[in-house]
Sequence to fold (159 residues):
Amino acid sequence: MPLWKVYHPAGAFTAEDKKKLAREVTEVYAGIPIPKFYVVFVFEEMAAGSCFVGGEPHDRFIRFKIDQIARTLPGPVIREWWVRTLDRVIAPFVKDRGYDWEISIDETPCDLWSLQGEPAPPFESAAEKRWVKENKASPYSIEEKLPVNLLLAPGVADR
Fold:
């Protein structure tokens, strides 16, 4: 799951803006692919005078705090690409409107997460493919934890 907490000044986003931003970010994650229902947005409105940057009031600042659990980003090049990708997606909602903004991403181990009482299935597994298709969590068997393109050959121990 990526959980996006968006801390923003009052009036920064309309209801339609929130819906559009959440949908556009969800489509980026769906391209990985992960199930769309993994992507959760929470918009937290900040009252005027309640945000400070560098010890000074800053009422044109938006903070995106992202908790990613479903996937981890391997290595600095992929991490930079991902942050830049997210910056491009949110730019029309922040940069193009004259806001200052910040993104931070925390990664939590996938085994410390469940959905409707089910641990998330492994990446590229039959269960995950089914979750993507059905767009919901559901029980799965040990067989469904296996990769869709299972390769069993000499020297291949674990995938």
